[in-house]
Design a protein that fits this description.
single chain, about 525 residues, mainly alpha, Growth Hormone, Chain: A, two-stranded antiparallel sheet, 22 helices, 6 strands, Sugar_transporter_CS
Length: about 525
């Protein structure tokens, strides 16, 4: 039950992160011809539409139209137009959809950047918010940040839906992302710290699947409401109920123990015993403690041999430096392609809502497949093959002619998204195992930042498509193939104990002798950076 409530908040996080895709998405529009119609009383496809504007690649221009003859009388016909063109100064929009494009008239190429800027602002807000969210989570608790961030996101999101202009919209887009930045990590950590040691890898896979479920529900709701203001209210409104989370979700036991709050820990264990229908005895309480908390190493068990600053240690080790550079590129590639393919899905041929839902659905099997492959064939072949296959599928889709066998194109696109989701899932676990304890947190932070750079750049792919429609897929495919080749330089870490020092990290892969770890599930949780 507790895990279910955490999962619901993570589903909301997915909707928060991707809702702007539908809020800023393209809407069908055409030039208004005031000589032939009144904007308040017209149809989107009048009988004279094909003769009203020039055609570009077989499509009626949305930004230029033909001048109407001066001597035309009454209702326009196809013969009412001349061959002289002029720029449009007003537009008629598809009445079945309402985004900020038709709200504030962001038509034609000159205004396209205003739509793509929203996604970049979203990712910048998340990056800045993570800095503060981590501190609050460690200082005041996982449940506090989970409750506070989710509830405040609800308030901010509802205000966002009442934006009166583009600038107010951008401000609240940033605030929404800033506030919600810590929800996924807090919920993920809280869920993992509440699970038994043996179930953590599989638990993390379930949590990642809940995030994908949030994306699926977002696509379904967006196809239902088709109004950006209503969509924001549907997505952010339920977040207000987060104020009741403290009534159903306990604080992390590990966090409470780190703060020496043993009395509260005992209350939680007693509550867990009652919820499981067990008699509250010392033996029962000790059982829950053994399931929830692993034995921690004492200081004497850790090898502390280098007190230099992390950057100094990295620069003095060519092995670690090369790994960091390659990891950084792989994380940037992951962030750019993972978010870029989701964003680009609404621009593909066919129904954009169905496309988005299908692209989200393939993430669920991707997480389970990567979990199994990482445990049986290793991290290195899983990561490299996932990158290479993702690139191959993206590039192969370019050879399917436009308008021919659309299902084949969509299948290849979905396969590419499945593989990049596998790579993203594997990359976090692999990176944590490649670096020593003395540098792990710092270097993971650098890699995470590179992923944010990639995700911040991904909204601009629609501008690239204006230059050449195939350019986004060429970029996805080539970057993924390069990352797959570069990842081959990593040593395999399956069955290896986590390195504590730079020297131990450098020795990974140099010896044929495998150092067996006590339990695979004691490794860092397998997850995605959201």
């Amino acid at each position: 039950m507790i895990f279910a409530f955490i999962g619901i908040t993570l589903m909301l996080t997915a909707a928060f992160a991707f809702s702007y895709m539908f809020i800023t998405s393209e809407v069908k529009y055409r030039c208004s011809v005031p000589e032939c119609e009144h904007a308040e009383n017209t149809t989107f496809e009048p009988p004279w539409l094909n003769a009203s504007a020039p055609k570009i690649n077989g499509v009626i221009s949305r930004c230029t139209r033909y001048v109407v003859q001066n001597d035309h009388l009454g209702t326009c016909t196809e013969a009412s137009f001349t061959n002289v063109t002029r720029d449009c100064d007003s537009w008629i929009y598809d009445p079945n959809e309402y985004t900020i494009l038709n709200e504030w008239g962001f038509t034609c190429d000159d205004n396209q950047w205003k739509l793509t800027l929203v996604g970049t602002i979203q990712n910048i807000g998340q990056t800045v918010g993570l800095i503060f969210a981590g501190y609050i989570s460690d200082r005041y608790g996982r449940r506090v940040i989970l409750t506070m961030a989710t509830a405040l996101s609800g308030v901010s999101g509802l205000i966002h839906s009442f934006s009166v202009n583009y600038y107010m919209f951008l401000v609240f887009q940033f605030l929404n992302a800033f506030i919600a930045a810590g929800i996924y990590n807090a919920g993920f950590i809280l869920g993992m710290e509440m699970m038994g040691v043996k179930n953590r890898v599989y638990g993390s896979t379930i949590i990642s699947s809940m995030y994908a479920m949030g994306e699926i529900l977002l696509g379904l709701f967006a196809s239902w409401v088709r109004s950006w203001r209503m969509l924001l209210r549907v997505v952010y409104g339920p977040a207000l109920l987060a104020i009741f989370l403290p009534l159903v979700i306990p604080e992390s036991v590990r966090w409470l123990l780190s703060k020496d709050k043993h009395e509260e820990v005992n209350k939680i264990y007693h509550k867990m015993a009652r919820m499981n229908g067990l008699q509250v005895t010392d033996e029962t309480i000790n059982t829950f403690k053994e399931l929830s908390v692993t034995k921690t190493k004492t200081k004497s068990e850790l090898v502390v041999s280098d007190e230099r600053k992390p950057i100094v240690q990295v620069l003095h080790s060519s092995v670690i430096l090369i790994r960091l550079l390659v990891c950084s590129f792989c994380w940037l590639t992951n962030g750019f392609i993972y978010y870029g393919m989701s964003l680009n899905s609404v621009s593909l041929a066919g129904d954009k809502y169905i496309n988005f839902v299908l692209i989200a659905i393939v993430e669920i099997p991707a997480y389970y497949i990567s979990c199994v492959l990482n445990n049986y064939i290793g991290r290195k072949p899983t990561l490299s093959s996932a990158f290479l296959l993702s690139g191959a599928f993206c590039l192969a889709s370019l050879f399917i002619p436009a308008g021919v066998w659309n299902y084949g194109f969509l299948f290849l696109y979905m396969a590419g998204k499945l593989c990049i989701a596998m790579a993203f899932s594997t990359m976090y676990l692999f990176t944590a195992e490649l670096f020593p304890t003395t540098l792990r947190n710092s270097l993971l932070g650098i890699c995470d930042m590179m992923s944010r750079v990639g995700s911040s750049l991904s909204p601009q792919i629609s501008l690239l498509a204006r230059i050449m429609p195939s350019l986004p897929l060429i970029l996805f495919g080539s970057m993924s193939m390069i990352a797959g080749i570069l990842s081959l330089i990593f040593p395999e870490t399956l069955g290896m104990k986590l390195p504590d020092t730079v020297l131990e990290a450098e020795e990974i892969g140099k010896s044929n002798k495998t150092r067996k770890i006590p339990d695979l599930n004691t490794l860092p949780y397998q997850t995605n950076i959201r």
